[in-house]
Amino acid sequence: MEEAVRGRANQQGAQAIPRQAATARREAEELQARYQKWISRALLYLMVISACGLVVFPFYWMFLTSIQPLEALFRFPPYLAPVNPTFESYVAIFRERPFARWMWNSFIVSSVTTLLALTLGSVGGYNLARFRYRGKRAVELLILSTQMIPGVLLIIPIYVVFLKLGLLDTLAGLIIAYTTFSLPFCVWMLRSYFMGIPTELEESALVDGCTWLGALWRITLPLSLPALVATSMFAFVLAWDELIFAVALTNSQSVRVVSAGLAGFNTGYTIPTADLMAASAVSTLPVLLLFLFTQRYLLSGLTAGAVKG
Amino acid sequence: MSAVPGVCLVRIRWLPYLTILPVLFVLSIVFLYPLFQVIIMSFRAVDLGRPVPGEPFVGLANYAEMVHRPQFWQSLRVTVVYTLSVVVITAAGGLILAQILNAEFAGRALARTLLILPWALPPVVTGLVWAWMFDFQFGVLNYALRLLHLIEKNLSWMVSPDLALPAVIVATAWKHMPLATIILLAGLQSISGELYEAAHIDGANIVQRYRYITLPGLRPVLGILLLLETLWNFKSFAYIYMMTGGGPARSTESLVVGVYYEAFQFYKFGYAAALGVIVLLICVAITLVYLRVFITPTERS
After folding, report:
1. Are residues A137 and A232 in the same domain?
2. Which of A139, B9, B177, B271 is the most exposed place for a label (fewest CB within 10 A)?
3. Helix or strand or coil: residue A209?
4. For residue range A129-148, what is the model confidence (pLDDT) as tens digits?
């Protein structure tokens, strides 16, 4: 009995040393692992913060420039923070230029374009997602191949046709052009999304006496909200941002949209940098707000189309 | 993919054709018909500035004039350099940002929102803001570079033939990176985590895991991204037009900016049409090459 106890004690004593060493080694490893983890964390945050800084700085600089008085603007080194901030430029752009008109025109053109592209795109996308017919492959190829055509090439004949039809220098002309240019992408994105929605739901609606249009309107479209929001955003932003059609097809101030207005801002002897940045900031605001409100739909809507291709 | 149930097909056979008609109609009158028109125009003498009576067919004269002009080759060079630079910077930067956003960390949602912001800035505004930041006298970028001791005195970015194009490239890449990031992030998230675990157990290091799991997993998404970016930048107008206007002395004039000036400043519609047709042909060639490289025969079927 005694021997047995002593024997066990000896045994434990013999193991104690390597066990202690093992514990120490494990602790060192853990410390090193924690240290490495800490370093990689710090590195990650450093990268995140510097990337965010690089991305946000031009926004900050635009806003800062727009609220600086002239004497604080044209100096080197530049002020990095506001000095006697003023909102004069924001008043000036509305008082001295038809800026409100440009914004309104852009709003009308973009909204109508979005509505048309979404309506045509839903029907077209539904068609490609659900129906099987001869020549469908050709239609799909046509829609995809439009992405290769440079807009600038089509402006030349469109200019000539619009000149004959009296559509030159009108908002309607711009709406027609933008609707067409956003349509292929809208059709394709909605097609991808509709294909992911099970057909059984629609089939049961059809059996219950719904027409195909009713099934599309009551079943498929409500289920496709993320894609519809993302598609609308795309069409709206395309129309709002577009420049080359806007400068080539419109001329008079009363039908200028905001992108063309900004492009023609620098006329005169002094460069109105603060006013230009104020106008830039205001023209960005609608798109920025729309983006922030629809962000969660954008990611799911856009990426569904992107990954499935 | 099942088609429409029998009930519907029996009732209206022509429904598929009817519902594709609006899209086809719009695409025909604003894409196909003008495309046909402009190709014809490129073989005619059309000059709205000095109208040629009857606008006769001149064969390949517009194209011949193009290849004899040094400006055409300069524009082609500018367009290729611009496109390749923006695509490479955007894809590489987007890959890094997507990798960062794919990691777990506090404030990830905020970082994601911030990193996507440039997407919401209109190209016109992007050009204006960056041109102001690149300003020779008062620009904040010259100040930052001097602070970092990278330059001794202010660089004349927008007014120097060598520096104007790099400045436009930086602005364009800054604006394009968010979309690349979103698309690549979606691609990363579609790669199964089990693959990485298995690789880890088999002792694959981080480079091997990247080379054999991440890149192949991203291949379809990366392919479509590279194609779209290449086409977009090749056809890009707003950044160069807003930042340099093609200057100084037409040294940064891309093909598309050239088409615009030839048509709407010099009113040489025939010549501009020919130049535009060349842009179209290059875009078609880019697409065909892409299909060869990125889509394997199995995927094609």
Report:
1. yes
2. B9
3. coil
4. 888 888 888 898 899 888 88
pLDDT band at B173 (very low <50, low <70, confident <90, very high): very high
- For B62-105, write each residue's pLDDT tens digit: 898 888 888 999 999 999 999 999 999 999 999 988 888 888 88
Chain A positions touching B241 (Cβ under 8 A) are 243-244, 263
Could you give phi then psi for residue A80, rounded to 5 degrees?
Answer: -95, -5
Residue A309, pLDDT score? 37
Secondary structure percentages of chain A, helix, strand, coil, to 5: 80, 0, 20
Residue A19: domain span: 2-61
Contact A306/B256, CB-based, under 8 Å? Answer: no
The pTM for the full model equals 0.85
Q: Write the single-letter amino acid at B26.
A: V
Q: How confident is the model at residue B187 (pLDDT cuts 50, 70, 90)?
A: confident
Q: How far is A219 from chain B (nearest CA, A)?
A: 14
Residue of B nearest to A211 (CA): B8
Are residues A51 and A186 both part of a single domain?
A: no
Binary contact (B38, A284; C-beta < 8 A) = no
For A126, A191, B251, B295, the CA distances from A201, given in Å and listed in that order, are: 14, 17, 59, 34
Residue of chain A minimizing CA distance to B175: A55
CATH number for the domain running over B71-300: 1.10.3720.10
What ipTM is given for this predicted complex?
A: 0.86
